[in-house]
Amino acid sequence: MAALSLLGITKDFPGVRALDNVTFETTPGKIHALVGENGAGKSTLMAIAACVLAPDSGEIKIFGESLAGATPKQARKMGLGIVRQDPALLPDLTVAENIALGVGIAEVGGLSNAVKFSDLILKDWNVGIDSRAAISDLTQEQRFIVEISKALAVKPKILVLDEPTEHLSTGNVEKLFGIIREFVNPETSVIYISHRIREVKMISDEITILRDGKVRGTYNSDQISEDQIIEYVIGRTLETVFPPKLDYKFIAEKEEKFTVTNLHGDGFANITFSVRSGEIVGIAGVQGNGQEELIQALSGLTKSKGEIEISGNRASLGNSAAMAKSGLIYLPADRHAGGVLLPIAVGENVVARTLRDVSVGGIFINKRKLEKSAQEQVEALSIKTPSLETPLSSLSGGNQQKVVLSRAVLSAPKVILAEEPTQGVDAGARVDIYKILREAADNGAAVVIFSTNGVELEGLCDRILIMSRGNVVEELAGEEVSEEAIARAALTSTAVRERVERLEHRQSKLHRWLRGDQSPAVILFTIAILLGLVVSLKDSSFFSAFNLNAIMFSTAPLIFMGIAQLTVVLGSGFDLSVGPLSGVLVVIASFFVVAKGNPILGFALLGGFALTAGLLNATAIVKLKVNPVVMTLATFMLFQGLYLFWRPTPGGAFPDHVTGFIAHSIGSVPIIFVIACALALLAEFASRRTRFGLELRATGSRRDSAEKLGIKVNRITFISYVLSSLLTIPTALVLISLIGIGDGRPGLAYTLQSITVVVLAGASIFGGRGSYIGLIVSGFLLQQVLATTPFLGLPEDWTYWVSGGITIIAATIFAQLRSTRSR
User: Fold this and answer.
1) CA-CA 20 to 30 A from 222: which of 201, 422, 558, 576?
2) Are residues 437 and 292 both part of a single domain?
3) In 63-169, which ranges are continuous DSSP H helix?
4) What is the distance of C-alpha 651 from the center of its chain?
5) pLDDT per residue over 64-90, tens digit each?
6) Which of 187, 204, 234 is the last residue of a domain?
7) Can you tell me the mean pLDDT for 347-370?
8) pLDDT class of 320 with cuts at 50, 70, 90
């Protein structure tokens, strides 16, 4: 019986047939490789196997059991584990939280045991992964190791590995291969997807070739050569992989276009070299010896000391914009993070660096010029795209990389820095990319490449710089350049580097805490204490029981509103309706609590109206796909109209016993403030230690990855909007005590204030991260500022200036802390 059977699978996307009647089966006890160009349909086929996508026709079986209508979670339970080319990781969640969601909260022993479980499954890799660290703080290699470990922890019967070694060092590739071989037994099977044909030959028993959405054949691995595989994959005879090099003695006579002198930076030192016009220089060495840091510094993305000259002109270090203006183009390894504009059309991506050349007066785009320039590049670089108007996200990885290169070539660069230029690219696209880089050099550019692929360096580079412990230790040129020579030169002692790495690991814990969700609360608390001390020196009555009571009572509604707003913001939403909704609730209460004399009915109606409002927002946003800002802005105006219709003028004074009950204090501490703080702490616990809280943050962190993990993101979003509306009820109660009359207008200000306290508390407005504890401090600080200006004898306008200034300063500090990735 086959382990995994994909029978007659067909899948269409708008304008393209991704899979055409594909039948693919794996046998227990075998490692079955699936190879093909980008866009051949490999990842789509595996997404269907994992039940992330539904086929238009065909059947999926695991050990004979049908997966018809199954979810990703059910597929995992039936024995399918998958390591994706784009890991299904949630960047704002910790390593432990990601593993808990991927493996199953119950399976890891609950969220309280997630860190211990994660440490256990990661320890054998020995790459310094802290289970408490956010995924966004990890290197690409560490992220893939987390993804691999997560898949293995499920104890799958079928393990799918989609480009698992793209970001792994040589040592960890060998470790992975050992894990794969140990995993395979008569009851398990591995599907190995890779563009690295040599690896495929080394690890697999069988190979299936997919091209243009169709199976082109299945072969025993030892009965097909690497060249044959490549030819079958690209559908043509492969004459040569690498373009011919010039005789090195001719290159040595050309001008020095890129000169680096005594460059020092984080992870490297004493770097001096030059690259001539027409020359391709590679940077190599054992991973972690400063190569990546050097490339980042050369591109101006990180700070360094020393001197860089481009065509004889000194460049500005640590300034990527200035480097680009000097004629240096940097091609990042992660094209999605820094190389492409995915929602934008192919044509616009191609000319993104040369808009002035296709515009009139540098202002208005000339569409004909744009299309002509882009089409020339598309044809010259063999970019496969339905049209220039096609969104770049629709293209395969290899063609996306060609677009990045076309943009660089079109700008006629003096220097090209390429970091892993063929990472995640199929065999056919690699050949084209090598040709593009060589042609750029032939046209006069100086090209520097950082690659971990020894074969690539040998075939493409005229000269190689070998790095060890942050220094260039050897140089290979001309005939000396070979994969064997590169490997031999790179094998140097790493004792010093290991001591440095341990020191960096200790330092990174503080760095990670500063980048975490709770550090803003500590920073704001410090500001609040300092502000209070300054004011008390001017007037000691600032800390009087009466004043502190007033500040805490006014803080309570800000905390309640912040909790409501943060609940939708964590899920990458926004609710502009919370302010006027609280006003409507006050007006409703003024009729039924006062006029009808039935407080129980009145407060029941408050709950019913808030629930209805939440259902209205949630249904429109989730079911009808209305933009959250548009929908909640509409209900903002709707609720404002309602309270003005019901109470055109304030009326219906609340009884003293009602307002007094709400404002009751124990000593100088209002009970409602204590309740607000307790609710914030409860919400914080729920966000970290309950399934709903974890899934809410996962949805906001990265929605597509959350869906791949089987999280019902629409349900989570729906609930968050309902909760947001219900959480405005406590604010309405405080307003009843504060204004004492049926008037909805004071509630209006709480929409802006709810956003302010959320931002001030350090939450990301894009979702995924934030602290309910921080709301307590940010709300208190804002009210403290309001109370401060009278004590200092400042006019009212200073209240807003100080509040705005503190918000800007705090937001800037938090942004800077989170923008610097830990090493």
Assistant:
1) 422
2) yes
3) 72-77, 95-103, 114-122, 140-153
4) 51
5) 899 888 888 888 888 888 888 778 899
6) 234
7) 79
8) confident
Which residue in 410, 403, 397, 428 sits closest to 166, CA to CA? 397
Question: What are the φ/ψ torsions at residue 650 (nearest 5 degrees)?
Answer: -55, 140
Torsion of CA 435, 441, 445, 451, to 10 degrees: 70
Phi/psi of residue 33, each to 5°?
-90, 145
| Residues 276, 448: Cα–Cα separation, whole Å | 10
92 exposed, middle or buried (CB, 10 Å; 0-12, 13-18, 19+)? buried
**How far is the C-alpha of 191 from the C-alpha of 79, rounded, in Å?**
13
Pairing of strands 415-419, 268-276: unpaired
Strands 256-265 and 304-310: antiparallel
Residue 565 has pLDDT above 60, yes or no: yes
Residues 75 and 165 grouped into a single domain? yes
Distance CA 773, CA 350 (A): 46
Specify whether the CB–CB gap between 266 and 148 falls below 8 A: no
Residue in the structure block whose two tokens are 């989570």: 716
Structure tokens at 313: 């002109």
- Residue 699's alpha-carbon distances to 111, 382, 537, 558, 567, in angstroms, are 17, 38, 47, 25, 12
pLDDT confidence of residue 370: 84
SS3 for 444-484, per residue? CCEEEEECCCHHHHHHHCCEEEEEECCEEEEEEEHHHCCHH
Q: Which residue has the higher pLDDT, 682 or 761?
A: 682
pLDDT band at 640 (very low <50, low <70, confident <90, very high): very high
63 token code pair: 């050990």
User: Given this model, what pLDDT does residue 506 score?
Assistant: 41
> Taken in order 744, 747, 749, 752, is the CA torsion positive or negative?
negative
364 strand-pairing partners? 360
Q: Are residues 220 and 254 in the same domain?
A: no
Question: Is residue 477 in some structural domain?
Answer: yes
**508 occurs within a structural domain:** no
- 746 part of a folded domain: yes
Residues 6+ apart with CB under 8 A from 507: none
Residue 292 has pLDDT above 90, yes or no: no
Which CATH number belongs to the domain containing residue 740 in this structure? 1.10.3470
Query: Domain for residue 702, yes or no?
Result: yes
366-398 pLDDT tens trace: 888 888 888 888 887 778 888 888 887 777 777
User: Could you tell me which residues come within 8 angstroms of residue 537 by beta carbon, excluding any fewer than 6 positions away?
Assistant: none
The residues pairing with 305 across neighbouring beta strands, listed in sequence order, are 264
> In this structure, what token pair is assigned to residue 125?
């890799």
